[in-house]
Fold:
Amino acid sequence: MAKLSDTKARNIKPEDKPFAHGSITGLSLHPSTQKGKGKWVLRYVSPVTNKRRNAGLGTYPEISILEAGQLGMKFRSELSKGIDPLEEKCKKEKIIKNPTFSECAVILHKELLPSWKNYKHGQQWINTLRTYAFPIIGNMMLNQIQPKDVADVLRKIWLEKPETAMRLKQRIHAVMSWGWARGYCASNPVDVVNYLLPPQPSKALRTAHHPAMDWRDIPEFITTYIHACPSHQITPKIIEFLILTACRSGEVRGMRWNEIDVDNKVWTIPAHRMKAKILHRVPLSKRALDIIVSQTNNNSEFVFPSTKGSEISDACMTVFIKRREILSTEKGRLATIHGFRSSFRDWCSENGYPQDLAEKSLAHSIKNKVEAAYHRTDLLEQRRSLMADWAKFCCNYDEK
Structure:
């Protein structure tokens, strides 16, 4: 079959019969109502439905003979694999026009993911929906979901896991609002779901603080369980350092050598590693500095690395505390790693140290915006003596 020439295509008239492309089976140029214009049509038998179909590949001269051939070749390649491109297109259009809850949730998750700094939060967001919502309303279209359906999702964990239930409710609400804004549903059923569920206990009653060791017991704990360990073990050292600096687990575990100024006895934690995203300077007591110096030969970017040289896991510290079964100030509950910050705060209060120094040492944000605007110093030099006294109390260490 002769190939279609540009001259013949440019002179196609409304009364002409379709011109075969010549290179692609079933591809032809159909005349339009204007001379020199036409539409590319590919006739084929669908491998999915086994029916004859016509696929439009664009208009001429916008799509040239060469481009039409390339499109036709790609189309034929899909057909040879048992795929009907028109069927695939219909499926995509169906998803857009009539989406299910799970389809909307996945799309919204992808849109929101770049705005979250914490990758772990992004995974938790969609995983919560996959675990609790998808099994019940995942295959339902948004316009089919009623308040009772949302209540069915939430009911199993509404009282048992109130915090998780509230986060789940917020995420379902976000998906439904996203769909409402796009015309997939006429209302948001989450707005009235509380009327179908029992009242939750107040946040004050359900808030569980990290159990903390009594500050009076810390010296004995360090002597008995920390200093008694072999000097080459990392976990006892990092726990003692955490206690002496009153910092969070992640801040200490992620500490790098380039954050430490040995000469000025200061550890500077960059903003991106802080909970409040504000740079935090930690004055190092003599004992804290000695612990750091004992780590100088570890050949890792981390001060307290794992056996593989990477950041040590939080589990190592947690297991160390759990195995010792140290009781907290809360009856029947064991002390936790994070609880040492509370122990430090209680020690400060009961020994007459100013609130400002204690709060700055813990890197707590000032909630009062007016006060925060005027209180810009981190009181580094004043905190030096506080942390030295704390180290002397904890370790009976000569800070001179």
Q: What stands out?
A: The two ends are 98 Å apart (CA to CA). The domain at 215-395 is CATH 1.10.443.10 (hpI Integrase; Chain A).
